[in-house]
Amino acid sequence: MKNIFFAIAVLYSSFLIGQNGVSPNKAVTPPEIVVLAFQKEYPGKVPVWTMEYVGDDDDEIRYEAKYITDKKTKALAVYDNLGVLKAYELQIPLSQLPQKAQAYLKKNYPVNAITEIAVVIDDKSKTTYEVGIQKNSKFYDVVFDKNGGFDVIVEKD
């Protein structure tokens, strides 16, 4: 009986060792084409790279470069595996959010529920604003269009 238990333990641990691949949101080194695209767009910036799988079947890779701007603001540049910029996100203060969005937030959420605010520009030059909200132990992104009109609320992990 001890031998069977030992054999199962060895087999199980070998499966765990085999799962030592790249996991999402763990610091990674992206392909050189991605690094060069980032350096060309944001010279002199030192990013922390992470990787995420996206798409309908989680079959597309995105490399996320988190860095600090010259104005000491957090920024995020997202690239595909060919070095194409897919999105840019810059944290902003509440005062830079369009008035319409500020009014919506004031009406629907307490000030202390807001955890972060960012302006997001996608690869089609579409601008949106994302506001992180903590409510009932859950985290949500409240998304506004470029004029501050409410678009959607998305629950996050």
Instruction: Please provide the ordered H/E string of secondary-structure elements.
Output: HHEEEEHEEEE
What's the tally of helices? 3
What's the β-strand tally? 8
Low-confidence stretches: 5-22
Biggest sheet, strands in spatial order?
A: 1-2-3-4-5-6-7-8
End-to-end separation in angstroms reads 42 Å
Decide which structural class fits the backbone: alpha+beta
Strand content: 35-45%
If you average the pLDDT, what whole number results? 87
The backbone outline, from C-alpha atoms, is: globular
What profile does the largest beta sheet have? 8 strands, antiparallel
What does this structure look like?
This protein is α+β, with helices and mostly antiparallel strands and 157 residues long. The chain is built from 3 helices and 8 strands. The termini are far apart. The relative contact order is 0.10.
Provide key terms for this protein.
157 residues; alpha+beta; eight-stranded antiparallel sheet; 3 helices; 8 strands; 24% helix; 39% strand; globular
SSE blueprint:
Blueprint: H1 2-18, H2 32-41, E1 48-54, E2 60-68, E3 74-80, E4 85-91, H3 99-108, E5 114-122, E6 127-135, E7 138-144, E8 150-156
Antiparallel strand pairs: 1-2, 2-3, 3-4, 4-5, 5-6, 6-7, 7-8
